[in-house]
Write a structure and sequence with these properties.
About 25% of the residues lie in helices and about 25% in strands. The chain is an alpha/beta fold. It has a seven-stranded mixed sheet with strand order 5-4-1-6-10-7-11, sandwiched between helices. The longest helix is centred in the middle third of the chain and has 13 residues. It is globular, with a radius of gyration of 18 Å.
């Protein structure tokens, strides 16, 4: 199963999930790709909004509780509510704010986790990073992942680092109840193209994504 959590209200971008991008609501981009997946049997949208009205055989819109709809509530609450009611072996948690998700990525990632079920327990989508990162310390900045006295060329950076792109997560239902977290046990990854690093959180993100799409 795939679960797409949607909240009706958002502060940074008003009604973010329902903003039109290419003439359709933002959430429909990820939803359509989930519906196109060969390996996802059913797609569930958990929402506190009455605007989501879709008639698709493979899709079910379910009511999200007030507790899980709270702006400070972690997504794990809505996952727990869902998994208590619906039985599945694996759950694909999809975030509607990443518009670059594709059904082929979902299917490849699901295949990777299932074929390696003895090696890995959960999976997240990522983008490869070769950025030289600095962090703030005592009103100054210090390098986090390299030695600035021996500055490497990007093509020579051998240590692979990844950025979580907030597109999707896949995990076993039974393990979620033990860990109470979408990521648990031995975690693997599915690498997505560079542009997928952009997800809609701020107004600037929306403008960038509209241009890229």
């Amino acid at each position: 199963y795939a679960l797409i959590p949607l909240r009706a209200k958002s502060k940074r971008i008003k009604n973010k999930n329902f903003v039109k991008v290419q003439k359709k609501p933002l959430f429909m981009h990820a939803t359509q790709q989930a519906l196109n997946s060969r390996l996802i049997n059913k797609v569930f949208i958990s929402t506190d909004s009455n605007k989501v009205k879709i008639n698709k055989k493979k899709l079910l819109v379910i009511k999200r509780s007030k507790i899980s709809s709270n702006k400070n509530a972690p997504t794990e609450i809505v996952i727990k509510e869902f998994l208590k009611k619906y039985l599945c072996d694996y759950l694909v948690l999809i975030q509607a704010t990443n518009l670059f998700i594709k059904s082929k990525y979902l299917d490849k990632a699901i295949n990777k986790l299932i074929k390696n079920s003895k090696k890995y327990d959960s999976l997240l989508s990522v983008v490869n990073s070769k950025y030289l990162i600095w962090k703030k310390k005592n009103n100054c900045v210090v390098p986090k992942n390299y030695n600035y006295k021996k500055r490497p060329r990007s093509q020579d950076i051998k240590e692979n680092e990844y950025i979580e792109n907030g597109s999707f997560y896949i995990f076993k239902r039974k393990n979620f109840f033990k860990s109470k977290n979408r990521l648990h046990g031995k975690i693997t990854y599915f690498e997505m193209p560079k542009e997928t690093i952009f997800e809609v959180d701020e107004k600037e993100d929306l403008e960038i994504i509209k241009k890229l799409i």
